[in-house]
Amino acid sequence: MEGNLLNYKDMEFTAVDMYLMDIGDATSTEFDFQDTAWLNAFDENPDLMGLKMGLCHSHHSMAKY
User: Per DSSP, what are the bridge partners of residue 7?
Assistant: First the structure.
């Protein structure tokens, strides 16, 4: 992560790996974080240890404002 938390427009993140939890549809998305299958990603790629984890949520089909 680069940038300043107080000025979020200047923040920049680099995605190293991604685990797709749910695609959803035009009206909703949901996943069960209790399902620990995503933990296998750490077994398959030990380089992920020590990195930060977060959730990405996209509205890729929405019009720009």
Answer: 4
